[in-house]
Prior knowledge:
single chain; alpha+beta; 21 strands
Amino acid sequence: MGCWNIRCGLIVGAVCGVVVAILGGILIPVGNSIIEGTVEKEAVIVPGTTAYDNWVSAGALVYRQFWLFDVKNPLEILQYGSKPVVAERGPYTYRTRYLAKENITAHSNHTASYLLPQGAIFEPSLSVGPEEDNVTSLNLAVAAGYTLIPKVMHNMLEGWIKTSNSSLFQRRSVKEILWGYKDPIFKAKLGLFSTYNGTHDGYYNIFTGEDDIAKVGVVDNWKGEPKLSFWKDDYCDMINGTDASAFAPFVDKKKPLYFFSSDVCRSLSVSFLESQQLKGINVYRFTLLPSTMASPVTNPANQCFCRNQVVTKNCTMSGVLDVSSCRHGAPIYISLPHFLHASPDLTQAVLGLRPHEEHHDTFLDVEPTTGFTLRFAKRIQVNMMYGPSKVITVLKKVKDYTIFPLVWMNETAALDDKTADMLKAELISRIQLLETVQISLMVVGSAIFFLCLLAYCVRRRAETQAQSKLV
């Protein structure tokens, strides 16, 4: 009878082990459902959620670092048509996005509109020198006039250049080149970012995710329009994705992420590169593919982004984007820093450029469960073009069209320790605890089952052998 009780106990133990293991298995979908519900609730952009608080005002410090290209041989270029030789100067760092969103308005169709004020505060401690540092750079007025003024009127431009004692290059302070100065040729304020401070880039209207969490943060329209008008093409004028500050939760690394950037006047996509750790949090790193700025020869989808067939050699040149149509006609070309992923024609026309994937590529580090962007580096280079002329004296020695690099910018931010600790305490640790409980129950239950089963078999065999000897 005692033996029978022991065998019964082992059977009960095995059954309990199975039950515990099954309970651990059941907790997986139940736990996932709980996690999904909590995340989706906090990811919706409505007052009172974590997503809304971070959306209204960026918690992390956002900086714009500028590296300017200092021309080392201006006389040789003017007198002999030599290739420009440049040296990088920087960073000159400014704090940006320090102002909260304004005019936030909720709409009945589960969207919200807002304005994002723009401003820049110089950060001397994060810069190589003061804003008053001087660099020799391309004369913005000459380059702009060369493109915007019809060739039949270049005699007039030549007269203005001579009267103002200007040249193809000018020596200006970092502050003047970035934020503006009074130009002697056109008697107007010129600067690469002269209209940045105290302005905004237009009204955004985004989906809040209340009716569909997959659409949270997606731009519904910009400046009141559901698509752009810069490229005169349905594909290139599409506004896709979010503003890159966050994406829908539960990110699938097999799928690209889409975002719209007013800086480059188009929508972009990034693809998964690798998993990384950021302050103890697992993140997915997404980067731009080389095909993003490829020529239509390599990527036919980019055909509608090619606007100047002369400069781009019949649209065979990779790595630059003519954004003049969204810059009030200013002849601005956008590229990655140092012409990363660009045609050799661009890097060979200007000496001193050294493109490097790690330093010059754009990336987003996204926490996969929430979809929040926890660290990013948006890297853009601003260029202008000049070319040969038989009329304008300072361009008579120029042999071919040159897309000249003026400055490259790294807009970057990463979550701080306080936000990281909050995210780990409120989300990551709870998910990890739930996963630990699930795995522990399955392991312990399975172990109890197999141990009890093994003990039962051993006991049964021993009893059988004992009965055989007795017989």
